[in-house]
Amino acid sequence: xxxxxxxxxxxxxxxxxxxxxxxxxxxxxxxxxxxxxxxxxxxxxxxxxxxxxxxxxxxxxxxxxxxxxxxxxxxxxxxxxxxxxxxxxxxxxxxxxxxxxxxxxxxxxxxxxxxxxxxxxxxxxxxxxxxxxxxxxxxxxxxxxxxxxxxxxxxxxxxxxxxxxxxxxxxxxxxxxxxxxxxxxxxxxxxxxxxxxxxxxxxxxxxxxxxxxxxxxxxxxxxxxxxxxxxxxxxxxxxxxxxxxxxxxxxxxxxxxxxxxxxxxxxxxxxxxxxxxxxxxxxxxxxxxxxxxxxxxxxxxxxxxxxxxxxxxxxxxxxxxxxxxxxxxxxxxxxxxxxxxxxxxxxxxxxxxxxxxxxxxxxxxxxxxxxxxxxxxxxxxxxxxxxxxxxxxxxxxxxxxxxxxx
Length: 406
Fold this sequence. Notes:
The chain is an alpha/beta fold.
């Protein structure tokens, strides 16, 4: 027996609908969020479970994380995390008006699980260590994106009133650039910066070739440029000072969170396998670990190694799986393989110019007949017709006049 449950979640409640295998709606109810709501859900589902019979409960919900989903997985339910884009497509099968309601979405999710459970991906119950790595890696990446957005906003502000600063500093999120812009956020104060002050900022930032960089920065800041009125320049300078403070704080938090990512990823039992992949380090390996959805079983004991290789290239350091007869071989990219069509064609052009011509098959070659009289063996037959033209006599033109045969 199978019960299909549709769960349309919100911040403070869940709209639940229970459906049997035949598509008949058994119950529909709105439950609160939290411990009370999950207890009422268990009671609601238990009312339709016959005594002494095994029942598989499949739940469709538009999220794959959170305490509610964790409680559903702990109860033994099969949870399908339906993508919102998929849900909108399923909603279009029931009607074309575009109307949307909480109860209608719960019904749609239950029916989607009932009819298309074989095409949906169940939410994997990862281990707490993997979930911790995933949370830290996602937050670390989000902070980097936010820092990039603030840096672009800072660059746009400088272009409006202080274009020399954009030319002077290559990286606006670097420590030396933030320190100098914080001291001199307007063109007048930036032009009064000395080489000693710029050199000290570069030294604290750990830069190389300090003398050359200091001369280039001072020359760029003192170069002639177009400006803005004093009041407008002061307003822009205040915004630049605030943006530099935000970027400096984001730099500190990104560095702090990167340490947490490396620490948690190093404690994961599969960290060595992820680090063995070419091009993966501590941070990138943690991100890949967060993207691969799998069961809590260790990776080296899995029966489906294709799930990891779907995200990463093969590498010879991967250990032999239980169901594989031999070690994993390295897979080159398609354009680097020896049997790639483009590579084979390029090699043929450099070695044998006639390689692009399709060779004739041995069994499909036309059978040649006996050579014509006067033709050497192995040559094509004469192209002239058997009966010569009336104006021709042998291989010469005949005399003018009527031909005897006419």
